[in-house]
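Components:
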Amino acid sequence: MTRVEAIDLVKRYGSFVAVDRVTLRAREGELVTILGPSGCGKSTTLRILAGLIPPDGGRIFFDEKDVTSLPPDKRNIGFVFQRVALFPHMNVYKNVAFGLEMRKMPKSMIKEKVKEALRLVHMEGYEDRMPSQLSGGQAQRVEIARVLATDPAVLLFDEPLSNIDAKLKDELKYEIRRIQRETRKTLIYVTHDQAEAFAISDRIYVMNNGRIEQEGTPLEIYMNPRTPFIAAFIGTTNFIETSIKDYDEKSGIATLEAAGLEIKVRHPSILDKRKRYFISIRPEDIKVINPNDQESYLNSFKGTIEDAIFIGTIVRLNININGLVLKVDTYGSERFNFLDSKGKEIVIGFNSCTILNM
Amino acid sequence: MSRRMHERLSSTLSYLYLILICTAILLPLSITLYRAVVVTRPDGSMTISFQSYTMISEAFWDKVLVNVSISLLTVAIDVAVAVPAAYALVKYEFKAKRLLFTYLNGVWYVPGISYGLALVLSYYFVYKFLLGFWGFVVAYSTGFMLLALLTAIVAFRNLDPVYEEAARCLGAGRLKTFFKVTLPLVGPGITAGVVLILVLSLNEFITALLLSGPTRVKTAPLQVFSDIRHAGIQPFVAAEATVLQLVSLAIVVLYLKFFGTKYLRGAIMI
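Structure:
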């Protein structure tokens, strides 16, 4: 198991700064994800870690060893690419054996290691197949076996599931997690898919415009997004621009105002009354409630259903409250009651929301 | 017009087009063979005889051997020089890269006669030591270098860099990545250039004609031309021409059998 530490990484392309003083750490045996939208610099960061791109600044350490200027073949890494990178002129066995041959291992040991790696990804029996005879999912499994066979110090995965259909993607992401747990390798995983990141990561770095915006466990990032960008990028949310009306130090409850509504938020510290704040309310945190239960909620409002959208396990309602439209998610068999409820008046309630600096 | 009739008409036209192309290519070759093997008897009747092949002089066979040797050496030199050069041109950035590509493409459009004349002027009047057999080899190698270079450049440009990156991440150094991954994957592209150089150098006429004066070496196509001039289009001259066709075909078929098909399957060349 190896610890990875990247400090103040910088990569510029002319005047464009693709990676801007990125610092990240992955502990031994940890699965760390760099999550961000397309073009945010996450793949560039990973390629710098692999040695495929030289950084313009910063240092990279694998344990105590400074690997910043080492070429990829001297870093002992396993890199899985976004596009399938199996050598098309070699069969599955030769592909998996490639890295072992480069390490000049004896043939009998290579045979054993290839077998073991293919077993780990459930691809035994495919040794003689050419990459063109494999499906997308099978090819990606072989690619993972190829990097695992070499027993790398660090695994680097660059959106390995982005070209795979939804069902298989769902299956493979748990496979990756299982393999990482079994092998106890340090894995740095890059994706733009927050569901994928949340499902497999120990910790997540959220990247935007070449910078790390927040670092934390999936739960921390979801529950306490630090910036409006993260709140919007992670899941679906209701963003409301508000001003501070009052702060009750005794109860620690701030009263904010938006579209003529007073919204109460629990907040541990005094807020600056001269500033304006965003609040983020997750659609799943808002409930359609019985008008008699309003007392149980910190916030409750009457509104009209503008629209009800069926999204499989969820029916998402757009509720108009004094001109402010909030997204509200309904679940279970109750959700079907809202499908033909356009124009109906209901009461909604919620307790939790997050205040974000503008 | 019904859809079925439309399909039938387009299918017939496609076949006619193919037949026309095949006829245009095969007819002259067939006529040469006809001239070589069909003999008219004194009574006016015709018969097939391969006697014309026995009349081919030993000098011609020597020249075929010279030709084949020149072509094989040309291919070897061109591949050895052009492949690394093309790799470097594609992979590494330098200031005048665009200008160089424009120049290389521009050279391609220089007429053969102009190029041949330039070679004669260079090798005979400037570098007088490059005469004889090796003069031909150097002339052909430089003449066809561009073909090898451009086909290799296209092959390297079309290669997805992800394979080389994967090889590097799996522990292969630059050289091993080049020989184990890059070269086998660009094989089909390089093969295309090799086949073209083989065929064109075996049958090169204009440059050979201009070089034969100062170098005093004659290639097989020049021998055929010389025989036409002195003896006319006799059956043995036609026989020589068919021999050249067969040698060309045999070399290309052998090359593709031993290297080309392997390449196309993606096996390792060197």
